[in-house]
Amino acid sequence: MHVREVAAGSVTLSVAEAGEGAPIVFLHAFPLTARMWSAQLDALPAGWRGVAPDLRGFGRSRGAVPARHVADHAEDVLALVAALDAGPVVLAGLSMGGYIALECWRRRPSSIRGLVLADTRADADTADAAATRVAMQGRAVREGTAAVIDAMLPKLLGATSRTANPHLAVQVREWAMANGADGVVDALEALRTRPDSRVTLASITCPTLVIVGEEDLITPPSLAAVIADGVTTAALTRIPGAGHLANVEQPAAFNATLARWLHTLTP
Ligand code: MLT
Asked: From CA 97, how far away is CA 169, in angstroms rounded?
């Protein structure tokens, strides 16, 4: 795996890459970075090139202006896809990454040959959820990124991981702490203002893989079922022993599911 900077539209994204072949672009969750995809980049099936950006405002990716809407991130991702110059890509987004992948589909479906929507949801924030985001923005400003990740950690990982793999919480916290409070505040704004994607689901015509950890408390299996029911081309896989970060918590099961599905795509 190597990391390089890629000029994508108006921003410069730090991008981790591995493998050679058809591109699969991995979009990370909030408040993490591309590092959450390490176990996928390290085990890509033959014929696939993994590309995992730090989204604008996260990790080492910066723009002249902040990204405060999922549309800003989607434009960055589509500019990255154009910069790859390799035709339509598979977009694999987890949670926030899934929100952005759905926005990319709305904006430029011709750039997407397949979607992986992992531990994510199609609906927008409720009024309560939006109010919680605003409160969290205040905490990020006053107390920094640590306050946000420490509030989220108990729900980010499933019960199995918290008991059997306590080191994962340390690892996830370290990834989050690579993000400055400004980027976290901007991303909370993007999460809070994201559109309702339920109406988008019926428009999706590319092969789509929906994955969810059975112990996901943030976007539980019932919400993955909404996506799978709404997308006529979707297949749904539930990962036992995983919470919200299914790819981090059960990488072998996640990778096997992904590899099986990638194998079904026409070259
Ligand atoms: C994420 O994992 O990206 C966040 O939990 C998404 C959200 O809070 O809506």
From this structure: 20
Query: Among residues 185, 181, 152, 180, which one has the least CA distance to residue 68?
Result: 185
Give the distance (Å) from ligand 1 centre to CA of residue 120: 8
Q: Judge contact between 78 and 100, C-beta under 8 A.
A: no
Query: Which atom belonging to ligand 1 lies closest to the Cα atom of 125?
Result: 9
Residue 88 is part of a domain; what is its CATH number? 3.40.50.1820
- Number of domains comprising the chain: 1
Q: Are the beta carbons of 103 and 73 closer than 8 angstroms?
A: yes
Span from the CA of 203 to the centroid of ligand 1 (angstroms): 24
Q: Give the model confidence (pLDDT) of 41-85 as tens digits.
A: 999 999 999 999 999 999 999 888 999 999 999 999 999 999 999
Please give the full DSSP string across 81-124, using - where no structure is assigned: HHHHTSSSEEEEEETHHHHHHHHHHHH-GGGEEEEEEES--SS-
Three-state secondary-structure class, residue 264: helix
List of residues 6+ apart from 199 with CB closer than 8 A = none
Determine the length of the chain. 267
Domain that residue 113 falls in: 2-264
HSE-CB of 10 using CA atoms within 13 angstroms:
10
DSSP annotation of 29 reads P
Cβ of 96 closer than 6 Å to ligand 1, yes or no, is yes
d(CA 31, CA 178): 9
Residue 172 has pLDDT above 70, yes or no: yes
Decide if 59 contacts 14 (C-beta within 8 A). yes
pLDDT in tens, 179-214: 999 999 999 999 999 999 999 999 999 999 999 999
